[in-house]
């Protein structure tokens, strides 16, 4: 059973009833934001989402087919709530052409690689370039090095991830969906960076 397949039906499914073109609509205290996850197959995108939304980890994961949709609301210290509408895309090459459906109109993109896989870091850089060319102007972008629990197998240094992120105006964090390390922090840091609409 994969990370996404253990989710109840009401929270997942290809395109669901939601239009992926929808952006975000907000009042000053309740923000709603469309977020897309991109990255190579197997880097742990679905596991990051499952950890964030359900607090669970599934070590026997199935690849995502097409994309799945989930949402999660968090409360910030200033009593603002942020509802993340999350599109978890499929990393397999055969689905690459679908990606624009999900990142178009997204306010936030989370580009994930696996710290044990230089190939996945190269793929993350491909997605960053794609987003720079075709993503929403002013999009908030995060670069995530996942599987940080696998230190002994590390092949991409935190320094390399950080430098690439800095050069490209991205926020950088290393996470582990397995141990839950930095998963909530990832979404909290994104929430803090969202532009606030003027209070009415
Ligand atoms: N050790 C470790 N394994 C992880 C972590 N996150 C995910 N995995 C494992 O990595 C594999 C792939 O995880 P998924 O979340 O399905 O990967 P994905 O990026 O969604 O892959 P696609 O759906 O094909 O794009 C699974 O076997 C997970 O159990 C992590 O933080 N640490
Ligand atoms: Mg997946």
Automatic annotation (TrEMBL):
Keyword DNA-binding among record annotations: no
Residue numbers spanned by region Disordered: 1-23
Keywords, comma-separated and alphabetical: Nucleotide-binding
GO molecular function, one term: GTPase activity
Cytoplasm listed as a keyword: no
Protein name, per record: Ras-related protein RABF1
